[in-house]
Design brief:
28% strand; 101 residues; globular; four-stranded antiparallel sheet; single chain; 4 helices; 4 strands
Length: 101
């Protein structure tokens, strides 16, 4: 299992969390084509529905770099800004513990 991950927090404008989630979800076919991204999760906060979390697991830092420069990332960062209340928070991360993957 790889220990290279990434987390991006998106804060949508009030009431636009669903629309922002749909825009991100639409890139799933591009992510499915990436061999270096075995896990990709889009989460929407139940407490703050205008907050989204994109969580990725990569096959090494090369997979993360390829993903961040790939078609899915380009589409997200091109289409989402008008829906956002703040710039996305990008957190390159390392997996510390895991169960079930």
């Amino acid at each position: 299992m790889s220990t290279v991950a990434g987390v991006i927090v998106f804060k949508a404008r009030a009431g636009l969390g669903g629309q922002a989630a749909s825009e991100i979800e639409a890139v799933l076919p591009h992510v499915q084509a990436e061999h270096g991204t075995p896990l990709w999760l889009l989460l929407r906060s139940s407490v703050e529905p205008d907050t989204l979390f994109l969580v990725d697991l990569f096959k090494g830092s090369e997979g993360r770099d390829a993903h961040m420069q790939g078609q899915a990332a380009r589409i997200i960062f091109d289409r989402l800004p008008p829906l956002l209340a703040a710039a996305p928070e990008i957190h390159p991360s390392d997996v510390v513990a895991v169960k079930g993957y």
